[in-house]
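Here is the promised in-class demo. Please do not try to memorize the tokens; focus on the logic of going from shape to residues.
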């Protein structure tokens, strides 16, 4: 049987940074990099749930406007729950694409993957189609669920201004104007609702939880 090669986010990030530096002006790159560093320093205590605690139940809309309830899913399988920022974020696209690659390994371990952001269902559908994602991508308007798992923050104004200059209408991705976003984080929730794995790579949103960490935790 052929063994799956688990993608490395660190390697993908290196290539993404090189590509981004070629696409953006030096000034734009500096703005985003400085904001990422500032968020890293500002947010040092991020996770709202720890291993052994009970995950709060929730019901959110998927890309087909269907209601997905966490505890209903847990009746048959474990859940890998990951929080991301938005379709416009290249780091989100990279990591969700890599998670799609290892989805067979996640499912083989008796789990399913759910990704959550405060985006509208239409934008959730966009990122799902863009990366050919075959797992649920849910919309958490106002971060009602996200804030129970991870830290929520406003996108720095300098980044928003630079996004506008680059042609991105940030508010169009969300239902509430000036929407805050979650610091990326990933959890594994057992069928009894208990959290068995929690990880974030900090306030610097360029860093994400590796697929290999998730697979190792599921198979522990």
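The designed amino acids, position by position:
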């Amino acid at each position: 049987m052929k063994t799956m090669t688990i993608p490395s986010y660190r390697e993908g990030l290196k290539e993404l940074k090189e590509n981004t530096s070629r696409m953006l002006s030096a000034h734009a790159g500096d703005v985003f990099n400085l904001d990422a560093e500032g968020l890293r320093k500002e947010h040092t205590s991020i996770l709202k749930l720890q291993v052994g605690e009970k995950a709060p139940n929730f019901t959110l809309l998927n890309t087909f406007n269907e209601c997905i309830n966490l505890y209903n899913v847990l009746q048959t399988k474990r859940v890998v729950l990951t929080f991301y920022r938005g379709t416009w974020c290249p780091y989100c696209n990279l990591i969700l694409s890599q998670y799609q690659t290892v989805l067979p390994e996640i499912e083989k371990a008796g789990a399913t993957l759910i990704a959550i952001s405060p985006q509208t269902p239409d934008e959730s559908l966009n990122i799902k189609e863009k990366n050919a994602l075959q797992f649920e991508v849910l919309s958490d308007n106002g971060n009602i669920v996200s804030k129970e798992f991870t830290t929520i923050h406003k996108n720095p104004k300098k980044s928003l201004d630079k996004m506008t200059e680059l042609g991105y209408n940030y508010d169009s991705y969300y239902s509430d104007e000036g929407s805050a976003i979650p610091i990326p984080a990933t959890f594994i929730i057992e069928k009894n609702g208990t959290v068995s794995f929690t990880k974030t790579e900090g306030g610097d949103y360029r860093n994400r939880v590796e697929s290999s960490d998730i697979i190792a935790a599921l198979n522990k």
